[in-house]
């Protein structure tokens, strides 16, 4: 029988003890940690949980996607807040922040960028109309989002963008087109949830009108 390393076998010999105020792990196994001033990792617990994956894109800020894992059933693991190393399909992909204090039955972990998905955000030619009687100018602003998948399997995407919002009564903003996006009136947030087939690309368009006093021009980014 091959001897297991301490890092591999210590998780099999640990016992979880939970009190009213804290959680302790008793490891009933002798092993040696060198006193060489270097950080050493020791496995004290091993669990497997099912996860659902989706890709998150914010084309206004990034042209690449982020892979997100949604994990359920984590509440009984006695997790601590802090930085966690992330391995995906056996490869180290970076670090994420673990926050078990969230009041939610699903824990979301960012697994890093995925360059197998690319999105572009292109501003469409603007249109402008003037109402001389009302003394206002109306501009129509639109964007096209083009998403391309270089993946070999079907993937689920969550895409977010935004139209302007205002508290100025002299400025009016009206969403014209959003191609089935969910629209939050208070924040102007637009969100799409779509499935993208292998090697497929899709186009999403949205546009809005902004009306304002012709003597008080508005800066649009």
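^ structure tokens above, recovered residues below v
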């Amino acid at each position: 029988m091959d001897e297991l390393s301490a890092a591999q076998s210590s998780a099999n010999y640990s016992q979880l003890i939970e009190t009213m105020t804290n959680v302790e792990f008793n490891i009933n196994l002798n092993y040696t940690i060198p006193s060489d001033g270097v950080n050493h990792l020791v496995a004290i617990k091993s669990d497997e949980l099912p996860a659902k994956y989706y890709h998150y894109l914010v084309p206004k800020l990034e042209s690449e996607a982020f892979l997100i894992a949604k994990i359920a059933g984590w509440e009984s693991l006695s997790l601590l807040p802090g930085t966690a190393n992330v391995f995906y399909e056996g490869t180290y992909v970076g670090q994420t922040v673990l926050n078990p204090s969230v009041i939610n039955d699903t824990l979301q972990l960012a697994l890093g960028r995925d360059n197998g998905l690319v999105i572009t955000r292109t501003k469409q030619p603007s249109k402008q109309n003037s109402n001389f009687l009302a003394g206002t100018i109306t501009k129509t602003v639109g964007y096209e989002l083009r998403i391309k998948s270089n993946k070999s399997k079907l993937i689920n995407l969550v895409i977010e963008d935004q139209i302007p919002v205002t508290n100025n009564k002299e400025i009016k903003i009206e969403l014209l087109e959003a191609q089935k996006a969910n629209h939050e009136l208070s924040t102007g947030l637009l969100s799409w949830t779509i499935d993208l087939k292998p090697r497929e690309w899709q186009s999403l368009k949205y546009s809005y009108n902004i009306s304002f006093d012709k003597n008080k021009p508005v800066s649009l980014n």
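The two ends are 67 Å apart (CA to CA).
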